[in-house]
Design brief:
about 220 residues, disordered C terminus, 5-stranded parallel β-sheet, globular
């Protein structure tokens, strides 16, 4: 029988055991629906009382454009080497270890500016589950290998390739690129990243084809 969104919510809820904070990772190629699924889970789980689930995207660890220019990586923005992977792993370790009354602040990412924003995502002490999502949660090279060790589970979002590319092009157009420029960026930059991410799929605890979640967020997924 195919999984339902309710099944996913129950599985996410079950990660919190013994009062400790748990971290669920959602991985997948660019445009596969990671953020959509993360937001739907957080909204569902927080809908029955005081908020106890926080959403911390990986995108806040993009290197700023000024640093990408210095490194000569501006045209590869979004590739693994254009993130502060060690900083991301350190934040996850801090989130897992926090047992006091401190709010932990994570960086966010402003799509309009295409830049990270420091201290934009507060994680309150009451958050017992943190949902984090990003492309490279399952990579096993360099500092990225530290990320997987901090996650209780990692789910992998899967979407038909043609639809995933269509969504990516539409996203780039929405944030200011012309159609031809958006297509060129997707094929030059996003696609090599997508192939790298797809190769990490087998290391996930669960594969979730997000296309079935589109719209209602509670439809069956297989």
């Amino acid at each position: 029988m195919p999984l339902t969104f309710d099944d996913l919510a129950v599985r996410a809820r079950s990660l919190v055991r013994g009062g400790r904070r748990a971290i669920l990772g959602i991985a997948g190629s660019p445009g596969a629906g990671k953020t959509t699924l993360a937001r739907a889970l957080v909204r569902e789980l927080n809908g029955d009382g005081e908020p106890w689930v926080a959403h911390v995207p990986m995108d806040g660890f993009h290197l700023a454009d000024v640093e990408l220019d210095r490194l000569g990586l501006r045209d590869r923005k979004g590739a693994p080497g254009t993130f502060d992977a060690a900083g991301y792993a350190a934040l996850l370790r801090r989130l897992r270890a926090t047992e006091d009354d401190d709010v932990v602040y994570a960086p966010g990412f402003e799509r309009e500016l295409e830049q990270p924003i420091a201290g934009a995502v507060p994680v309150p002490p009451a958050a017992r589950l943190v949902v984090t999502e990003g492309n490279y949660l399952l990579l096993d090279t360099g500092a990225w290998a530290r990320v997987r060790r901090e996650l209780d589970e990692v789910w992998f979002c899967e979407l038909a390739e043609s639809e995933r590319i269509r969504r990516l092009v539409a996203r780039h157009e929405r944030f200011g690129k012309g159609h031809d420029e958006a297509v060129a960026w997707v094929m030059r930059s996003d696609q090599p990243n997508a192939e790298l991410v797809a190769a990490s799929r087998d290391r996930a605890d669960l594969v979730v084809p997000v296309a079935a979640l589109e719209g209602q967020g509670r439809q069956a997924v297989s």
